[in-house]
Amino acid sequence: MVGFVTAILCVMSGRPDTALAQTRPSSQEYERRAAAEALFDEAKALMSAQRFTEACPKFAASQAMDPAVGTMLNLGDCLEKLGRTASAWAEFRAAAAAARTKGQTERAEVARKRADAIEPRLVRLSVVVPDGTSENVDIRKNGTSLTRGSWGVALPVDPGRYVIDARVSGKQVYRTEVDVPDNPGSIITLAIPLLSDSTLTRRQVQRGFTITFGALSIASLVTGGVLGAAAIARQSQSTGHCIEGNLCDATGVAYRQDALALGNGSTALFATGAALGIGTLILHLTTPPNIPPTKIGFGAMSSGAGLIVGGAF
For residues 62 and 40, is the Cβ–Cβ distance under 8 A? Predict the structure, then answer.
């Protein structure tokens, strides 16, 4: 056992396979490799400090810059410590394949054994699509489309929450959240219903009118206020052209007429705004509540399965 642990530490300690290039690298290649090494070293330091959340992205960035089996092994180890079992399992399997291709049999064996040790702990998610579903339907998991070949297949996933949605032109979008428990060997099954025709609900129509009436009410009240202020200003301007109340010269008469017209317009707009405001309030109070998609989750037992039920909107 001590010998096996020592072997793991040796095969995961560095990235010697990156030095096997057959041609002289360019200066950009040297810089890229140097950056990958620096990221790898920083990730290793973070791993030693048990700061796995910070270490994993750095291992991944190093691997993207300069692929190496050693980096893949370390990334798999980091992901496993984070509890991302499916990601770690996939990384170790990829590392085993890459090591075999490079003739690194010891690393290939270590990676295979790590993957085999994780496999019984995997949790799986199966998205079942009913018969009769349109071929153009787009099923997504956390925004990533699922291929038709993966429908109904219990695929390994990391424990956690997933947003599943199904959409097709002319149909309502179906969306739900699935909580996948960290329960080794469990399978969660999500049944996608047949999508309904896309029609506006009473709530959607009423909310549209509520927003429109509310906006018109505000606009009417604001405009009425502006006209009212203009009417007062006109009335004030007329005082210099009038004596004994309403005895005015031609300019004063014109000012008084403008003030009267502006005042009438202001009054009408205030009345309209108030009516629209009352209508907005009534529509708001009578709008049907937004009932979120139904979500029923059952944590599966080690040999069982769970069902998550969602809703359409």
Answer: yes
